[in-house]
Task: structure prediction
Amino acid sequence: MDSKFKINDEVIVDSRSSTGHCRTPAYIRGKKGIIERICGRYPNPEEIALCKKDPKIVTLYRCRFKQMDVWDNYSGKDSDTIELEIYEHWLNDA
Amino acid sequence: MNENYLKMGPHDVGGEDSLPIDTTDNNMTHWEKYANALRIVVSSKRIITLDELRYHTEALGDQYFEIGYFERNCLSLHNICIQKGIYDMELFQKIKSKKISEFDVPIVDLPDVASINHIHDGKPHKHNVSDFQEDESGDGPPDYYFDTLAIAQIFIDQGLITNDDITLKIEQFDNIFPNRGKAVVAKAWHNNLFKEALIKDAKKAISDIGIELETFADIICMPQTDTVHHIVVCTLCSCYPRTLLGMPPSWYKSRSYRSRVVHEPREVLAEFGTIVPESKEIKVHDSNADMRYLILPPRPSNTEDLSEQELSKLVERDYLVGVRLPK
Result:
């Protein structure tokens, strides 16, 4: 199955809240970044945590964010970055 | 900063203000090693998945930071077992009481620990020095140890795991896993082709030299360069390439490190004695899902004549997480 995004695409992490187990930290929700690489397809941890049978297989991306875009009053350098792994259902077009 | 309402729970600490980091690695006690081994055996056999364990740990609420890391693991494992009906409280209490009674011996001067041989469950049983670490205070092992022993015993009685599984895992964490990462980095320092292969596809390169990592996760290798400094954290729990580096140090699992390194990496690095020049980019990797990270430090200067074996002695764990650099 094709992945929705390709390398260097601009994306925004969904800013919805969540209940239960989830691997998208609060601090990155709503932030804009780019796709750094496509990691492959993995069972959705949100469903594994609930012991769902045959959890949905989803594409996982590594995303790169400028620290200046993530934190208000970031004290480091403009060039500093942070990279996280985000599942496709948490990513929107920028 | 993001609004607090988005926070998933007590574990979701990335970006919080927190205390300075205690950068010393407190060695694990025997019960912690046992609890860790049980957790890894249970999840690698898919009896209970890692995500289930995380979910139940996150659901501890206020208790999350009131008790220690291994206590949290123990309690979440127990809660899952009760919820799934793997055992009931009556059976658990019965086995736990038996485990406690096995420790309930009169206090006498300890003989040389290595010479202690006695009978457990009809089999000769030998103690290691580490078995007595908790006893230094005179209080004996923590109550969570008996919980952990009881849970393990029930799994063993049900034929889900064996005692040997746990013993092997403790042994691997003590003596095998921590040496793998050091060997891999020494080889990369010594052999440019291997270094290139490692950066291209770390799990494959490591497998090609005969090290099969007992993990579902993929490994990504990031080389430190003159222009970029890499550093790894897991803000949500403690994801770490355990089968390559061993157990994460205590600071890696601490609230301070997990909260702060994402939003003030230079300050955190300075607490480890690592001053990164302003001209360098700092790249933080939040290891939050299915990838695990190995940071490849630069080869120390004046080591051109050293063999791979000699180089491996210069590799320190802290380099491989990115908190320190070789001189």
Q: What stands out?
A: The CA atoms of residues 61 and 86 of chain A lie 5 Å apart. Residues 10-93 of chain A form a domain with the SH3 type barrels. fold (CATH 2.30.30.50).
